[in-house]
Write a structure and sequence with these properties.
The chain is an alpha+beta fold. 30% of the residues lie in helices and 25% in strands.
């Protein structure tokens, strides 16, 4: 969220997806519970993101990057295989892990939590291992150019082979045996593929769902790669759960537009934390009240609810 001034706690330059560049402002990370039945997100924990000294020292894209020293082809002599399940968590992942553990202590006994849904920024092995450490399965997105491989199957079962990776997946020619669903709408053909594949950057096999969209007029093709660490999860649920993640964006929209998340004038750490948490608390409270309000006033929104409360308050004063 953008923020002017120079004294607000945690003020720094953060990337904004709205303007596609870093802007001066504050950043908050939110853990939300998403109801599959209600199709709504409920923010539960909010923590301000403070850049570490290491993150601040990273070179920006505009700075000149020195070329890496060239080394000989092949594996360096004496190198050993690394256990990809043993990872060093970044300060960002440690913060998220701490928040998840706190949430599980509060809700784990009466609300079973299974999946952690994160955007493509967290589509990597370190995040997957962090999720498994807290007994959650991850659902996220891979880069569109990720190198995925079919697990190698030895045609001669009697012979042992140390080979792990089979053929590399060609996103323009995915085998039909992986096709789950195909549909056409507004001259756009959508093909959904699902299979268990390997990625050399991950410690384990991944449940991969590939959505290929083809414009039937221009033959232009694009694709999106979703994945989960739960190998038994269906493609429909992986797609649905990932789409539901966008409900969190509506929480931020409401917190900014109606409950002062982008307008508070607090400067200190505690005051900024209280203002942000109050804004998201009002998001949840207004949704609860709005559910009852809509029984008599269908299709009403927060603006209608606020207008009703203001009118009711003025009538009581008069």
């Amino acid at each position: 969220m953008s923020k002017s001034g120079k004294k607000t706690y945690g003020l720094d330059r953060f990337f904004s997806s709205l303007v596609s560049k870093p802007i001066l402002g504050l950043s908050f990370f939110t853990l939300s519970l998403v109801s599959v039945e209600q199709r709504h997100s409920f923010p539960i924990q909010i923590e301000q993101v403070i850049k570490s000294d290491i993150e601040k020292s990273r070179p920006s894209a505009t700075k000149e990057i020195k070329p890496k020293e060239k080394r000989q082809r092949g594996r360096p002599k004496g190198s050993k295989n690394k256990n990809k399940t043993e990872v060093i968590l970044t300060s960002e992942l440690l913060r998220i892990q701490k928040m998840i553990n706190s949430l599980l202590k509060l809700l784990g006994d009466f609300i079973p939590l299974t999946y952690l849904v994160l955007d493509g920024h967290f589509g990597n092995n370190n995040t997957l291992q962090m999720a498994r450490l807290v007994n959650l399965h991850i659902i996220s997105k891979l880069r569109h150019d990720s190198a995925l491989y079919v697990p190698y199957e030895n045609p001669e079962s009697s012979n042992r082979s140390r080979r792990k990776y089979g053929d590399k997946v060609d996103y323009r020619n995915i085998p039909d045996k992986y096709l789950c669903k195909s549909s056409i709408e507004d001259e756009i053909q959508t093909d959904v593929y699902q299979c268990t594949l390997l990625h050399k950057g991950f410690a384990q096999a991944l449940n991969i769902v590939i959505l290929v969209k083809t414009n039937l007029n221009t033959n232009a093709i694009s694709h999106v790669i979703l994945f989960s660490s739960d190998l038994k999860l269906s493609s429909e649920k992986i797609i649905d759960y990932y789409k539901l993640r966008f409900q969190i964006e509506f929480n931020f929209r409401d917190a900014k537009q109606f409950w002062g998340l982008e307008d508070f004038m607090n400067l200190g750490q505690t005051a900024v934390t209280n203002a942000a948490n109050l804004a998201f608390f009002m998001v949840n409270l207004s949704h609860y009240i709005l559910a009852d309000f809509r029984t008599l006033n269908p299709d009403s929104g927060i603006i209608d609810l606020r207008a009703f409360i203001v009118a009711f308050d003025m009538s009581m004063k008069s």
